[in-house]
Amino acid sequence: MASVSAYHRPATIDEALTLLERPDAVLLGGGTKVNTSTGLVSAGPVEMIDLQSLGLDGVERLNGDRVLIGSMTTLQELVDDDDVPSVIRETAKREAPNTLRSASTVGGCVATAEWESEFLAALLAHDAVVKFISDDGVHSARLADVFAERGLLRRCIITAVTVETGGIAAVARTGRTKADRAIVAAVARHCPDGVRRLAMSGVASTPVLVADPGLVDPPGDFRGSKEYRQALALTLSRRALQDVG
């Protein structure tokens, strides 16, 4: 576990970006996940940069069929907000126990990109776009691209995530118990334009969009072998896609 050499609570984004230039700087959101922009913490002393005073929380309905979710919005706030698509609310509730949901943030979940997160799979299915800022300006990228290129957020601060709200979505999942994190989860969404999107967790190093569930190549672990996860991918994706028509 890394030791903490300094704690900072910047009042502005510019101040936070300046602090982030320090070699041992680590962004701190809700405190349930402590990570650098690459999702890793070194073993040496780190300087904590607490983002809670930057006003990056809250949910806002945008023009059209998108909702903006501030990066410091907690999972519990998502669960309680009717403007957020129901499948995102459902998976946010399962992302962490109630003792942690009031602290864990959307930005922290995106930054750590945990491979078995069905919440992140739900964001992918809803065409999530990540907004972030660095010393060279404001940027945005689709969540799928952020996961594919993990260095994209290096020395950046995630400010928000936007998601589409239209269509019909459904989740199919398998865990050791109903309350346990899913070993594999499939989130399907039938978009208003007729396109069906499928995102999965537990089948790659991060949650991913999947065109053909028969081609997934998951790593195995103590919760499920590669072959078991492949079999679940086929079954659960078929079930989720059937549910959305």
Strand order of the largest sheet: 5-6-9-7-8
Give the tally of β-strands.
13
Report the CATH C-level class of the largest domain. Alpha Beta
Estimated structural class: alpha+beta
> Which blocks of ≥5 consecutive residues have pLDDT under 50?
35-40
Query: Could you report the average pLDDT, rounded to the nearest whole number?
Result: 92
Fraction of residues in β-strands? 25-35%
Largest sheet: 5 strands, antiparallel
What are the secondary-structure elements, in order, as H or E? EHEEEEEHHHHHEEHEEEEEH
Q: Report the end-to-end length measured between terminal Cα atoms.
A: 47 Å
CATH topology of the largest domain: Uridine Diphospho-n-acetylenolpyruvylglucosamine Reductase, domain 3
What is the alpha-carbon Rg in Å? 18 Å
Overall outline: globular
Q: What CATH architecture label of the largest domain applies?
A: 2-Layer Sandwich
Helix content: 25-40%
Give the helices and strands, then pairings.
Blueprint: E1 4-8, H1 13-20, E2 25-28, E3 34-35, E4 46-50, E5 59-61, E6 66-70, H2 75-79, H3 86-95, H4 98-101, H5 106-112, H6 118-125, E7 129-134, E8 137-142, H7 143-148, E9 157-164, E10 168-174, E11 184-190, E12 196-201, E13 208-209, H8 226-244
Parallel strand pairs: 1-4, 2-4
Antiparallel strand pairs: 2-3, 5-6, 6-9, 7-8, 7-9, 10-11, 11-12, 12-13
Helix pairs in contact: 3-6
